[in-house]
Fold each of these.
Amino acid sequence: MTLDLVVSRLRAAGCVFAEDEARLLVDAAGTPADLAALVDRRVAGLPLEHVLGWAAFLDLRIAVDPGVFVPRRRTEFLATRAIDLASPGAVVVDLCCGTGAVGAAIAAAVPGIRLSAADVEPAAVRCARRNLTGPVYEGDLYAALPASLRGRVDVLVANAPYVPSDAVDLMPPEARLHEPLVALDGGPDGLAVLRRVVADAPSWLAQGGHLLFETSARQAEAAVEAVHAAGLTPSTASDSELATTVVIGSRP
Ligand SMILES: C[S@@+](CC[C@H](N)C(=O)[O-])C[C@H]1O[C@@H](n2cnc3c(N)ncnc32)[C@H](O)[C@@H]1O
């Protein structure tokens, strides 16, 4: 199959960035049969990253297994804020880690961090273990972490699900059909999991430590209130181009 034919098949299937995707698929395919199979899977609606088996995240190539949440470009903003706050040697936790993209980005940028990660979803845990050298635990939020981390975490980053339940059906099919609901659904107002993350964060943070998470602009005010109510000092950072807000809670 020629590059032009791949482009026209992808375009006909509704891929907006057909040329870029075609080049990536051609590069990834070892043989013409491989290429045909990759194009078929993409045309059938699988996310490009699931077809390729990787996603670009900051300067990294992150392995993405089938059925695992695909790290989003907007989350690079969260990772960059975490990098800014992490000192060399810091104790860092990537909670709700998915592929582990955020933790991997911090580890690549800040020397000597001691990184742990956790997720409730077994496929995500397996995938994160491919991307991270530190331990990756399986379980519900903090219950997955070893007690020895309590009170010692300098940077706690949690890109938890924050889509309101009734908005999940409005998401693009790539997300709705190929990413697990547990990775998307944040409860009635989207903040159900994040409220639990915030409420217990103070007992895991070291003095002067920071909790960071992503929300939509609309959710930021309620999220800041939750951070304040937990006894952390709230602040926010936004990026209009990436359409994302990061809420930070700092332990005094
Ligand atoms: C929006 S995805 C983000 C994944 C990754 N942090 C990223 O930025 O690409 C949310 C992740 O939270 C995990 N998750 C949802 N509820 C959880 C819980 N109660 N405990 C631990 N992980 C949870 C999901 O399995 C999913 O991997």
Amino acid sequence: MTGPKDNDRREATSVTITAFECSPDGGKGLARDTRVRWALEEVGEPYEVRLLSFRAMKEPAHLALHPFGQIPTYERGDLALFETGAIVFHIAEQHAGLLPEDANARARAITWMFAALNTVEPPILELVTAKLLESDKPWSKERMPLVEDRVRARLKQLAARLSDADWLDGAFSAGDLLMVSVLLRLKSSGILDEYPNLAAYLARGEARPAYKRAFAAQLATNTAKTPAG
Ligand SMILES: N[C@@H](CCC(=O)N[C@@H](CS)C(=O)NCC(=O)O)C(=O)O
């Protein structure tokens, strides 16, 4: 039976995340709230979203939640978290489905979470920065091949390890969720097509119903309205 008390309790423990009111990518799913939405969808945890303008992200109320004034954050009851890696890890710890039960397999899946964020994402972000923010610099044309080759070096290693497997280490895990999320940033560059098994890996991630729901939810936010001002 559900009475007012049950509703109150559910309210108090419901998950709220933050996202851009208007994502710079216009809804391509590259803002990092998509990773958190995806993790929550994978484990079947409902969530609310608080949308923030760039100005609100730098104001004291949000800085109290996120010291660097960024999105996403995660709040549940009196717990507030920032950093997508930590948030996805927390979700995976709270629910079955994103980390294996076996201790060693679990440790390996967590290793892939770190590898995605610490080893594979940095050169990809460097490429994104070079294209978006530095393409007008006089040295940009000369530097770009170097930046692209650093991405290729990592992709080659990752492709060799993945080989013809579906996922990085057995069943789909939070490590795959973060790795696919990181690789998504390369989709428009064409570089991923040089590594057919990685392109197929990405497509497998995007085909997951939970990813589709997460993507659709962030797209709906970003196409719903243009904020005033
Ligand atoms: N390492 C952080 C990075 C967070 C981050 O860069 N968030 C971006 C959106 S994807 C942001 O808020 N950018 C706006 C800003 O830094 O002012 C994480 O993984 O959560």
